[in-house]
Amino acid sequence: MAGGGDALRALLRAANALLQQRRYRAALAVLKGFRNGAVYGAKIRAPHALVMTFLFKSGSLREKLESIAQATYTHSRNLAYFVFTYKGLMALQSRLQGKKIPLHSFFAACVGGWLVFGENNPINSQITMYLLSRILFGLSRLAVEKGYVPQPKQDPFPLFTALIWGTVLWLFEYHRQTLQPSLQSSMTYLYDDSNEWHDISDFLIYNKRTDSK
Question: pTM for this structure?
Answer without folding.
Answer: 0.77
